Amino acid sequence: MSVQAARSHAxxxxxxxxxxxxxxxxxxxxxxxxxxxxxxxxxIYNASPLFPFTFPRGxxxxxxxxxxxxxxxxxxxxxxxxxxVYVALGIATGRFRRKLLPLHASQLIADARAALRxxxxxxxxxxxxxx
Length: 131
Prior knowledge:
Blueprint: H1 3-15, H2 21-47, H3 65-92, H4 95-100, H5 105-117
Helix pairs in contact: 2-3
């Protein structure tokens, strides 16, 4: 691929980004925090399994019950603070207003039907279209 083609590809890709950087960053922080919560939750479960199986130690986090609880609560705080940041930035930048309002019952019903049929559009609604 030539340098010119690479620049063209990069500029066309930048033009189709739907979410701003702060939305993508908060998403990935949540994804990592959820992985930590799952891994530590499995270790917490292993301390006193409800069912006759345990999770392999290689996929758990924390090493022992107290360590797992520390990881679990730390990830919980990361999720809580990240959620506050997401909501604050969504309000401050006006993204929530642009993306969510005005919201009409007919649009919700049409989207629910499309989702049930598997034909829900994932296009950026703020760019063109008569939806």
